[in-house]
Amino acid sequence: xxxKGVLYVNMAEKLKIIPLGGLDEIGKNLTVYEYGNDIIVVDxxxxxxxxxMYGIDVVIPDVSYLIKNQSRIxxxxxxxxxxxxxxxxxxxxxxxHAPIYGTxxxxxxxxxxxxxxxxxxxxxVCQAGDVIPVGRFTVEFIHxxxxxxxxxxxxxxxxxxxxxxxxxxxxxxxxxxxxMMDLTRFGELGEQGVLAMLCDSTNVERPGxxxxxxxxxxxxxxxxxxxxxxxxxTTFSSNVDRIQQIINVAARYGRKVAVSGxxxxxxxxxxxxxxxxxxxxxxxxxxxxxxxxxxxxxxxITTGSQGETMSALTRIAFSTHRQIEIQPGDRxxxxxxxxxxxxxxxxxxxxxxxxxxxxVVNERSNNLHVSGHACQQELxxxxxxxxxxxFIPVHGEQRMLQTHSKLAQSMGMSPKNxxxxxxxxxxxxxxxxxxxxxxxPSGKVLVDGYGVGDVGSVVLRDRKRxxxxxxxxxxxxMSHADGSLVSGPEIxxxxxxxxxxxxxLIEELETLATRVLTECEYRHMTDWTNxxxxxxxxxxxxxxxxxxxxxxxLPVIMEV
Amino acid sequence: xxxKGVLYVNMAEKLKIIPLGGLDEIGKNLTVYEYGNDIIVVDxxxxxxxxxMYGIDVVIPDVSYLIKNQSRIxxxxxxxxxxxxxxxxxxxxxxxHAPIYGTxxxxxxxxxxxxxxxxxxxxxVCQAGDVIPVGRFTVEFIHxxxxxxxxxxxxxxxxxxxxxxxxxxxxxxxxxxxxMMDLTRFGELGEQGVLAMLCDSTNVERPGxxxxxxxxxxxxxxxxxxxxxxxxxTTFSSNVDRIQQIINVAARYGRKVAVSGxxxxxxxxxxxxxxxxxxxxxxxxxxxxxxxxxxxxxxxITTGSQGETMSALTRIAFSTHRQIEIQPGDRxxxxxxxxxxxxxxxxxxxxxxxxxxxxVVNERSNNLHVSGHACQQELxxxxxxxxxxxFIPVHGEQRMLQTHSKLAQSMGMSPKNxxxxxxxxxxxxxxxxxxxxxxxPSGKVLVDGYGVGDVGSVVLRDRKRxxxxxxxxxxxxMSHADGSLVSGPEIxxxxxxxxxxxxxLIEELETLATRVLTECEYRHMTDWTNxxxxxxxxxxxxxxxxxxxxxxxLPVIMEV
Lengths: 560, 560
Description:
2 copies of one chain form a homodimer.
Chain A: E1 15-21, E2 30-35, E3 38-42, E4 58-61, H1 64-68, E5 73-77, H2 83-86, H3 89-92, E6 100-103, H4 104-116, E7 123-126, E8 131-134, E9 137-143, E10 152-158, E11 161-165, H5 183-192, E12 196-200, H6 213-224, E13 231-234, H7 240-252, E14 256-260, H8 262-273, E15 298-302, H9 312-317, E16 331-334, H10 343-355, E17 359-361, H11 363-366, H12 376-386, E18 390-394, H13 398-410, E19 425-429, E20 434-439, E21 444-448, E22 451-452, H14 457-469, E23 471-478, E24 485-494, H15 503-522, H16 528-547, E25 552-559
Parallel strand pairs in A: 3-5, 5-6, 6-7, 11-12, 12-18, 13-15, 13-16, 14-15, 16-17, 23-25
Antiparallel strand pairs in A: 1-2, 1-19, 2-3, 4-21, 8-9, 9-10, 10-11, 19-20, 21-22, 23-24
Helix pairs in contact in A: 4-8, 5-12, 6-7, 15-16
């Protein structure tokens, strides 16, 4: 291996990259970089539960590998402040302690999150251009554009070489704040030689370019100009530049702006305090004051772009908001894309707004939202600048990873130099090779209320069954002395049938259970597990035959 | 009221139109027409359950109004054979008996459905152009284009006037079978004078025209031409013309066709038997035979375009199909739109196909699907031809109904002549007026297994709670004589926490329940309802504080 660095590298010490989340899946991004005795972590994100994860609030990555290697962790580096990149911090920080590096905006949002959970952390504010030495790594912060302010990519260097970790990004030549992403720096790194690139694949299926954030401002202008009605706008609370544009256009047309929804209020406060948002004096008013203004001077910015049940816009639509009621003619602007799975929830809110006489303008036809991720043409530009030796498509589901691999191949990269893998796999890099060499524990840890990880597949399977057909409890007291039935069986059902209209069925069940118990006594069955099994089996097959349903049956024997 | 017909009409006898489904909602289409003592029903459709209707298979309209007026029902008229227009028949026909009128294809599909449910009905095959007298109504069948063969609109005439009921339709100048919809007849009716029109609003938000079904054939051709791999295509099984096009292109390129999935097999059988499908000889082969063919001669048509769990394509993707396994290189064509709510299920199937090395081509970028509903330009044409005096937009959610109303207004119709209403409302028409005058019972009846209507809001609320946090059963035996605790309390949980890892918590619950019971005894509480209430209350607040969860708590007292 006659490469230049050979003298300085202990060849036994390879660079390991271990994705623990965000690969072959969407959300809960977390990647581990490991060289010698040093570990750094990039992003600690959360994911949303699947439809069949009943009762689950949040999904976080399994970090048992990090817990086991706690003493080697030198730092946590955050690319930006979206939930899928920082949302698991409050849970993971219970077990893992390391300095957290991020930009001002990112750490401002982390701070908010930690306060909610009564947690503290060693946070170190960095900015694009900074190069942070941690153990034998250095981590360089590189400015990128995204749908949140102050997003960065990382150039992570260790003796094996430099890895470019893009985080989420797009190229916006006319952003609202902060300038175009630092293509020059990516190009310089490419000239110096990049060992590998881990690159965002979210929009790899879309041809062309993602539009500039600024183009949405033009759409707002057209909708505010000449409008005599109240205007209510909803968008993602983390999209500070979008909110800035709404405030700008409101001010331009003489409207005051009020805000509704906790996350929107928080975002506005943090971004104003940190200087990411500039609000023209006298523009913001309290929600309580807005009523006294004429319609044409009112603009309300709310949460609820995904139709979330408790969000401000949903409450406004369904008349459960304390301060705002829909008035006929209100112009409601939905400035957000629909996250897959939320179509019906958003549809219900839109229908209700229409029903109350509002005018709803949404994204589809009006250029009211632009993505924060690079499309094919942007991806090609970055590949051409960075020219990595090895390519690891990340931040996407299988179909996106494969499409991204094809895109790289279409630019001349050999498929041998592309690694598509999944979470928990150990990718080992030398100067000349990049391959999967092992596996560490990984997966989904479910958060339900205060419980982290105490709901697993068994509990979920029970919840699914309970959800679909309900529960039937069969209680009986039996004599400790001779195993005879002392009282019962009593039948209690929930979620099965409407009991008042099904008394006959319940009686049939009691009769059947009694018959089974009599038979057990007759056969001198004394093992209560067997007796419970017999009751369960008979009731279950009777019910399936009669109702084609399969409720959970819980026989309980009280020994007296 | 100096209208021409005044001499012949008993003015007390108005035409009533009562939508019992499909208005201000999607699905379960059913409309009642009533004149004097005569009632006719148009369509008897089913709907799909909302996300929070746990365990529900199908939703059907509440037809108690029809049951009450059974003796006056002269006929059921079906516009076409889609589930949302015929799917509730097996349930509704248990209570309602009337001749069913429909075209050959529609009744063929109804027949299949009734056989599955062991039901029989008086079915009368009609064709476009037929005029059926029923009571004082006549119903004329008019040919329209849609995404299923043999769809019709109705011109429903009674002494008050003629109502055009469009059903689902689009204008396809180059359909695969049956010719363009009968615009001439709509025009003639318009010339003669149409009292009111009830018109499909599904695609009213889309500008322009829906593309011809034939255009999809060109896309198939491009994907079959020169392909050396196996081709697997999925589409809606009811779209006979689409299946015909797949078979045609397969035959053109020397491929044999096999079919997988019960509904696809049924659709193929019915449509071939009834002459709606023409299969070139020697093209169809059994699924078992297909393995022996070279890849380039294989085409498999499957169910599963919506990612349904048990469908053929899902089973193929996840390797649970008995006869078909994905081979690297397989070309999978998804020729269907995504019904909102199914995004994630379809996404999971696509990712799994990619993971196994298949190439997936889907609708988005490849013109592999066209809608069956009219877009704005087509709607304008029909409005211009029919020129109804009154307009009732139907078949759509609130936002579509209102958009359709605006479209009609943009063509000169007065808003006073447009009625937007909801199910259960009685729309009363005279020659000069159209207004809502009353309400009849209406709503959603839930079907769960064999049970029709035995699951209502109470049961659903319980299922939701069980799904989210599980159930805790607290059982105790108490003395009949003095109310003292004989045995227990015993705690059983399901769907709450993983019991083996939470023994401590369960013990805490037992201790707490015992304390509550002791206290009850000390206070001489003897009413068991109160005792149960106390146990429930204490456990509930303890658990919420400790876990932030709210499981269903079921205290059971056995009297011994």
